[in-house]
Amino acid sequence: MRGTRRLLDALAILLAVGTVFPIYWMVLAAVKPAGEIQSLQQRPWTLAPSWDSFHRVLAVDSFGRYFLNSLLVALVVVVLSGLCAFLGAVALTRFRFRMRTTVLVLFLIAQMVPIEALTIPLFFLVRDLGTQVPGVGLNTLGSLMLVHTAFTLPFAIWMLRGFVAAIPEELDEAAQLDGAGRFTVLWRILFPLVAPGLAATSVFSFITAWNDFLFARTFIISATDRQTLPMALLVFFKPDENDWGAIMAASTLMTVPVLIFFLLVRRRLVAGLGGAVKD
Amino acid sequence: MTTALPAVRTRPRRRVRTPLWLLLPAAVVLGTLFVYPMWQLGLLSVLDFRQAQVSGGQPTRFVGLANYTQLLGDAQFWSVLGATVFFAAACVLATLAVGAALAVLLTRISKVPRLLLSLAAMAAWAVPAVSGSTVWMFLFDTDLGLVNQTLGVTGLNWMYDRYTAFALVGAVVVWHSFPFVMITLYAGIEAIPRSVLEAAAIDGASAWRTFWRIMVPVLRPLLAIVVIQSIIWDFKVFTQIYVMTRGGGIAGQNLTLNVWAYQQAFAAGEYGLGAAIGVVMMVILLVVTLLYLRTLRRSGEPL
Amino acid sequence: MRLRLAVAAALALTVTACAPSTSSPTTAPSDGGARTGTLKVWLFDEPNRAPKDAVVKEAVAEFTAAHPDTNVDVAYLAVDTRSARFKGAFNDPASAPDVVEYGNTDLPEYAAAGGLADLGPAVTAWPEGADLSADARASATFQGTLLGVPWYLGVRALYYRTDVFTELGLRPPTSQAELTAAARTIRAQKPELFGIAVGGKYTFGALPFIWDAGGDITSINSAQSRAGLKAYTDLLKPDNCPPQQCADLTGGKTVELFASGKAGMAIIGNFNRAAVDAGAAKGKYAVVPLPGSKPGSIAPAFAGGNNLGIMRNSQRPALAADFLTLLASKKYQTKMYAAMGNLPTLQAARAEVAGQDPFLKPFLSTIDAGTKFVPLDPGWGKIDAQAVLPTMIEKVVTGKATVEAATDEAATAINAALGK
């Protein structure tokens, strides 16, 4: 029994190493000097780490700018989608109304819609919207914020339901008896209690917006200063020789914020996923 | 799993007017950016809508099902459709198998390895699709890749053969998506009362038996969500294919419906045809998931 | 029946009425637009872009010095995905850049999409404009409207490694048979080298073979075209350039292979000179025209070249014209020649560089021997964007289809795109 466990422990560690290895390789290649990257004898370590690749990425190609763009889009999406989802989740768990099941099923179906297929109509919609409302047309960060808010919403509502449902209704009933208005119940009682769940939900919204490649590629047509990270990364795939050092440095920069975010909300994420499915 | 929150679920008793004001923000957002575009997608798919119409000032024409008949008569469509379904199915199965196996493994190991493995999985999950694709490309690069150098083969191009190319992209997809399955299922298994599992262990049930006889039935609703999410995600893989095979691979051998639709619309200027491909994709996805949901319902599981 | 028709017609009408709005091209601001602000410029990304970048930066500095309160935002587009970017810019007037570099093959498509502005008045007002030859003007004119200023000409010829040829006792090939033989000898004697670097995605490397055999794009499944395609794809074999490595090479990658000393020969352009000089092959190569199958003949080259144009939707057409004419001026054409090897289009500039540089001789002989072009039809853009020809080549190379099947399939796609 103990022997088996040891064996399984070893296996798990091996698998863990294998799983993080690509990430290690990415960071390593980012700090390798150019000569070692071009080498036909790749070594899994480097004795002469250099910041050259990061310098190329940050100084020459204004990656910092793209980084901020991506961050801005992702944060706005997190806030907007979190807000709408919170309200929606309360409606769906605290009230029993006609069509409630229908609405629920609709949210589930919405998650199945391949948003990639919607690129075509959305392109024209956003273009036409841009002529009416400044700041959300093509070539703006606003357009990305809008579409990702919409795409993250169904899953966010679905996941938040579990968190809202987990708060005993006696709490808001008591508050209402004490004379608190609907609004107060919502913001003073429910919101703080759901906040941890909201944090977990926001991870999903964040990565959807942060990882987006398709819409950034389609919507940001000519505004070089409004590009986001995934598109900017492809610049280093050259028509002649790929600049692997820069690609890996840029990939590293792109990965770090998500990694931090993930590790911060790790525990809640697990609980949240449980909540989302426990109904 | 309804047992988890029984008090709440059985008592939403305030039967009131629809809480419109709470649903309004979500409805507005989804209405404009989800429902309306879906309608437009359907509309575009029955129009003659090409570059000449979009920017060349030519009139838009209603062409009925012409885009669909063109599509169904195109040998490439069937080849791409087959590849998409096959690729997605393989990814879903692999993701579920790896995720479930590791979730079970997590329950049977000591604390430190467990922490390490779940942290590693979290990290893989966090890596953005573009970065993940690029680093795997680098690992499998023909000349500079660690894999070829370690294997000691020269000139092996992993993207040359259709199936190895798909396998490599699939590996990246699985690497990105197994942590979700693993962590969700692990959370579910942890919620199963210890006594049940211990009883099974005392009865001398093997891990395999315990998994199928005890965990699977209890975890059914959880598995349903995991399966559906996997289908949804893997059927729609875009970034990995687009980046790793540079837009569809040698002679378009690695095209999937998604990438193909995108190229027809935005590169070739066939917006109507691209929309028709999008509709086909949406219908397939809806049918698959609804069928799955129905079988679940039949077997008596609540949604 | 009549009722049903009426319903169908009404339905069709409503349906089309709800479609996304189509934007017919807007008219440019008649006063030439703002004279200050940011000018957006799209240029092509190329192998070894640094020298091009440097010349463009110099032009930008000169331009901004002469035009106060302006700045120029230059973006380099990946050539193989340019189509989607340009379409996006045509579709959304607000996002259009001002000055663009585009391939002369793209002209009909962009013209049909209503994307480019009429440059007639701007070129007439430009003193150096008169120095453009009638041929050059014609190459940038579509249906009577001048939609670009030819920026440079590019033809491809055969670069070969003099050191390798000397060592193996080879002579520069004067026929296709000699070319093939030399390529195989190099590969056999020096297995670390490709004999001649060729690629499955290198359309303009393959076309000379097809044209030399008497074929053409519009008759891609004729016996002649097939013979030419076979001659080209036969080079993508393990005895020269193994499919594993070469099937998905683009023209740019073959440049890189030759420049870094991994190929004995390559079919590359005058405009790739800087890229080759930046690599290990520097000083160890010479150029001859690409031979045809008849001994002593020259295979017809593709008359490539890039134009500079102004987008129809540009908000600053006057400022854009100022920048365009600066970049297309003799001064900068000469500089671009020195930097990249781009053959000037202004006669004065061409005379100046051709007279003093023997490097150009094989390219000029190739032009004199007669060049060919892709179909002058908006449909070419679609053929290109759908990668019809690369797919055809790759299918043959990877053994997914026979020459016959691949060419038949390509012919269907080409005819559909050209509306035949």
From TrEMBL, chain A:
CDD domains: TM_PBP2 (cd06261). InterPro entries: BP-dep_ABC_trans_perm, MetI-like, MetI-like_sf. It is a multi-pass membrane protein. Residues 67-265 form the ABC transmembrane type-1 domain. PROSITE patterns: ABC_TM1. Keywords: Cell membrane, Membrane, Transmembrane, Transmembrane helix, Transport. This is Sugar ABC transporter permease. It comes from Actinoplanes auranticolor. GO terms for cellular component: plasma membrane. Its main location: membrane. It comes from the Bacteria.
UniProtKB/TrEMBL annotation, chain B:
Gene3D superfamilies: MetI-like. SUPFAM superfamilies: MetI-like. The chain crosses the membrane at residues 20-39, 77-106, 115-139, 165-189, 210-232, 271-293. GO terms for biological process: transmembrane transport. Pfam families: BPD_transp_1. Keywords: Cell membrane, Membrane, Sugar transport, Transmembrane, Transmembrane helix, Transport. Coiled coil: none annotated. Its main location: membrane. GO terms for cellular component: plasma membrane. Belongs to the binding-protein-dependent transport system permease family. PANTHER family: BLL4140 PROTEIN (PTHR43227), DIACETYLCHITOBIOSE UPTAKE SYSTEM PERMEASE PROTEIN DASB (PTHR43227:SF8). This is Sugar transporter. The lineage of its organism: Bacteria, Bacillati, Actinomycetota, Actinomycetes, Micromonosporales.
Automatic annotation (TrEMBL), chain C:
It comes from the Bacteria. PANTHER family: MALTOSE-BINDING PERIPLASMIC PROTEIN (PTHR30061), MALTOSE_MALTODEXTRIN-BINDING PERIPLASMIC PROTEIN (PTHR30061:SF50). Keywords: Signal, Transport. One of its GO terms (molecular function) is maltose binding. One of its GO terms (biological process) is maltodextrin transmembrane transport. The keyword Transmembrane does not apply. PROSITE patterns: PROKAR_LIPOPROTEIN. Residues 1-19 form the signal peptide. Pfam families: SBP_bac_1. It comes from Actinoplanes auranticolor. The keyword Cell membrane does not apply. Belongs to the bacterial solute-binding protein 1 family. This is ABC transporter substrate-binding protein. GO terms for cellular component: ATP-binding cassette (ABC) transporter complex, substrate-binding subunit-containing.
